[in-house]
Amino acid sequence: MADHHSEQALPTCPGVLHDATRKVPPTAFVILFVITGTYVLVYSLSLHQPVSPSFMTGVAITFGALFALILVGNFLLYARSG
Question: Which residues contact 32 (CB under 8 A, 6 or more apart)?
Answer without folding.
Answer: 59, 62, 63, 66
